[in-house]
Amino acid sequence: MKILIVYAHPEPRSLNGSLRDRMVATLAAAGHEVLVSDLYAEGWKAALDGADFPAEPAGARLEVVAASHRAFAEGTQTADVAREQRRLLWADAVILQFPLWWFSMPAIMKGWVERVFAHGFAYGVGEHSDRRWGDRYGEGVFAGKRAMLVVTAGGWAEHYEERGINGPIDDLLFPIQHGILFYPGFSVMEPFVVYRADRMDAERFHDVTGELDRRLAGLFVEAPISFRPQNAGDYEIPSMRLKDGLERAGLQGLRLHRR
Ligand code: FAD
C-alpha cells in the first residue's frame, strides 16, 4: 500500500525524528511505499494568504473561500499545494506526525491543512442545499483512505484521561480527527500517543517503538474510530443535531459522535 507521512518537527535529531525514521523503516520492511512530507525541511509556507492565489486580480479584495475554489478548479494553485494534493490522492493512508504544542498540532502543520485542503477539494464538495450539507463527515475526496495521528506529548497519560486536568485526549484531538480528517472522508484510526515524551530513555524508546510497529501493522486491519457519518440518519435535518436517543451509557460530550 502507499503511505504518506506528513511530519512536523524542526529538528531531525528529535524524538519525533527518530519515530519518523522508525515508521519509514517499519512500513518499507512490510512492503509499503512510503512518502514523507517533511514540512520544516521543505520550508513549508505556513500562512494561507493572497500569495496562494496568483491568478487573482492584483488589488482585488481577497475572498479566501472563493479564491481557493477558483484556484483549485482552474488549476492555478501554487506548485507546493498542488504537489501535496497529488500526494494525498496517491496515498492509501496518511499519517500526521507531530509533537503536541499547546494542545494541538504545530502551526506549520495547521497551515499545511489550511492551504492544501482547498475548497472544491476537501470542503465545499457535493450538494449543498437545505437538505444536504455536502459530501463530508464520512464522505468526500478521501473516502476509502485511512488516517492516523502519531503524537508526542510532554504530559502524563493520566493528565489526559477522563478526569485529567488537560482534558481527555480524545476530546483534544477531536478537531483534528473529526474536523480535519473525518470531514473530508478519511477513516480515522485510534491515535498513537507517546506521553511523557521528554522523559525518554533507550529502554522506553524500545517499548514505544515496539508498540508503534504493532499499530502500523494494524493500519489497514484494525477498525477505525466509529465516527457517525453525516448522511446515514443519525443527525436531524437540517439542524444537523444528533438525534435524541442515540446516547450510549458512559458516552457524553464529543464522544456522542461515535457510534
Ligand atoms: P525531544 O526533545 O527531541 O526528545 C525528548 C526526549 O527523548 C529527550 O530526552 C531525548 O533525549 C529523547 N530521545 C530522542 N530521541 C531518542 C531516541 N532515538 N532514543 C531514546 N531517546 C530519545 N506537552 C503537552 O503535553 N501538552 C502541550 O500542550 C504542550 N505544548 C507544548 C508547546 C510547545 C511550544 C513546546 C515546545 C512543547 C510543548 N509540550 C506540550 C511538550 C512537547 O509535546 C514535547 O516536548 C514533545 O512532544 C517532545 O517531542 P520531541 O520530538 O520534541 O522530543
Automatic annotation (TrEMBL):
Q: Do you know which InterPro entries this protein is assigned to?
A: Flavodoxin_fold, Flavoprotein-like_sf, NAD(P)H_dehydrogenase_qn
The answer to whether UniProt assigns keyword Transferase to this entry is no
Q: Which residues are in the Flavodoxin-like fold domain?
A: 1-205
Family statement drawn from the similarity comment of this UniProt entry: Belongs to the NAD(P)H dehydrogenase (quinone) family.
Q: Which organism is it from?
A: Nannocystis pusilla
UniProt keyword annotation of Oxidoreductase present: yes
Q: What PANTHER family would the database entry show?
A: NAD P H OXIDOREDUCTASE-RELATED, NAD(P)H DEHYDROGENASE [QUINONE] 1 ISOFORM 1
Which of UniProt's keywords are assigned here? Oxidoreductase
What are the leading ranks of the lineage?
Answer: Bacteria, Pseudomonadati, Myxococcota, Polyangia, Nannocystales
Kindly provide the name given to this protein in its UniProt entry: NAD(P)H-dependent oxidoreductase
